[in-house]
Amino acid sequence: MTDLAPGAFAVDSRVPGAAPRGFDAFRRGWQTQIGDVFPLPAFSPATIADFRLKGSVARVRDVVIADLHMASATRIADPAGGDRDLVEIHVLRRGAWTLGGLPDRDEHTVSTGQFLFRHFGRQMPFETAPHTTAQFLFLPSATLRSLLGNRTVIGPADSAEMRLLTAHTSMIQKTATDLGPAGVHAAHSTLIELAKAVAVRRFDDVEPQLAPALTRAAKDLANSHLAHPELSPTMLARELNVSVRTLQRAFATVGESVTAYIRHRRLEEARLALTSPSGRWSVSELAAHWHFVDSSHFIRAFKKHYGQTPTEYARSTGSAAR
């Protein structure tokens, strides 16, 4: 297997004749793609009989990133004897994931919007609620075990450190097939550094290799708050727990400013609204909705970016802005 290999999969063992063959095919595919970085546990017979799962997976050297949607409930069988040495991060987007049940360990339930980060010296029993969506990161223990010790780190998935980590994993999944050896090395190194940051709940905001992840996290955050009147470099820096200067320096590495990115994205949304079949916006309404100073300012910015005024653009596409 190569250093980095992406893939998508889906399985539904309820299809006539699919169970257990459908589950066995999934297990073989996982083993082919992931190898021995994270061998699948032994699931309960009830789980195998109703196993509905879809997702994608990527491997970066000794790190596995899996985004999974489990439509059915899952439960692993008795994991006795399942020794291993692995660090895991579980980020719950929806549903619930319960870990524990051994005499020497507490039970933990990770709910929507939370993450769990810990070192595992052996396979632990776990179960998931139906319709659970999560990202799982399986990491080598050598560089992270000493930071975690026996701690179980549970926190909000929207913390500054987790925002950077998930932004970086998203970049990896989107560019996996295009990364050469140098790119794989950089992606892996940054993953480990960001995982360390989650473990200690802070990151080195002057570390150059974290700039792309910081930029991506800021863009993701901006995209989800484009209509917010307070969206600004200051707001983004505050949410990501960095200085405005650090954020601006990170954006400079990709040749743009934070303010320019926000303005361009708002202009793009305004452009799409001009030709939306669901309703027609006036120029003044667009200017107000996307927080331009006034209609004149919006028109000038739109023309500078697209070479036409909003009205000219709407006419050229068969619409008409009021």
From TrEMBL:
HTH araC/xylS-type domain: from which residue to which, for each copy?
216-316
Cited SUPFAM superfamilies:
Homeodomain-like
Arranged from A to Z, the UniProt key words for this protein are: DNA-binding, Transcription, Transcription regulation
Question: DNA-binding among the record's keywords?
Answer: yes
PANTHER family in alphabetical order: ARAC SUBFAMILY, HTH-TYPE TRANSCRIPTIONAL ACTIVATOR RHAS-RELATED
Full protein name: Helix-turn-helix domain-containing protein
